[in-house]
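Folds vary. Our protein:
___
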Amino acid sequence: MAAEGTADIDLGTAEGVRRQWVGLPSPSGLGRAGAGGHPCQGIYYTPAGRPRPRAVFVATHQNIDFSEHYLAEFMARRGFGFLGWNTRFRGDEAHFLTDHAIADIGAGVRWLREQGVETLVLLGNSGGGSLMATYQSQAIAVDLEAGTGLRLSRGLDGLPAGDLYISLAAHPGRARLFATTMDPSITHEQDPLSVDLALDMYHPDHGPTFSEEFIARYREAQVDRNRRITQWAFDRLEQLGSADQPATDQLFTTYRLWANLAFLDGSIEPNQRPLGVCWVGDAHKANYGVFGIGQVSTLRTWINMWSLDHSQTRGELHLPKITQPSLVIGADADTGIFPSDAQALHKMLGSSDKQMVMLEGDHYFVRPAGARDVVADYIAAWVSERC
């Protein structure tokens, strides 16, 4: 045990990589759960049999467990450290609040600095891109707002900043991504089978290929749906606050969330992706299925993460404040994040030392064979030039 309330356990060495389990309380005051779990936890990867690395990556996501991130061992074998880090919201997207997540990331970053890390690289992968950008901006100056009716989390003062920022197959924010994938043809939010055929992208009368008129009308309807749900969430919170019963929030389900026109039409956001699929498989089936992001939320989480107008992890709020050297990597066969996303991130970054590159691969660089080695080599060379 490294300190009271802290688990620091050697998991052993294999294939040239040492693994260390790290569990920490949250600076917000949230401690170890009765069942034993720490709110903040992850695995620290370092090169075996070599001095502790001077440069270390840290990667976190809003919901996905990053403790075994696919790049961790690749970077450790190239001489770097890698902390795959989780906040209290791993596997609990429905209750996500940005300020509490940022405090939890700070616990891991502070632990790394205590290990003597000289160059800290914030790695923002997929949805984690906007989250790690938010962290860096709050380390510069805290400007997050508390959730409706809540107080701002403790633990946001004195966040240790990163030295480098990398966006890897990331988008400018989950709310923006969500707005492009929401199905605007649903007519009743509580009925996943309800459909306005005039807005149904899967109806053969519309395409593909989709007309410019349909694309414009469809995208406007997507934004309208996002804003309708947001307004309902605010109204519902007000109703709960005035009710006789002691309810302060509620869970709700959002249906039909795999309906980006680009899933079917390769002329929209052209890249090397296969058509008809999304991150969870067949796009049409997924749209009527139960797997995906943002399907269940509390009212406050919806406002805090999914609302186009109120989300606190929107790239435009935080990327301009990042002046540290920055690298944006896009995947040229990504089915959900496109070259325009990488271009937008690169443009918003406030750094004078910034670079953008598109590399061959799907969203997680599983394919083609060797794609992850290519990504790891590119990142290693870029970081080595700057530390």
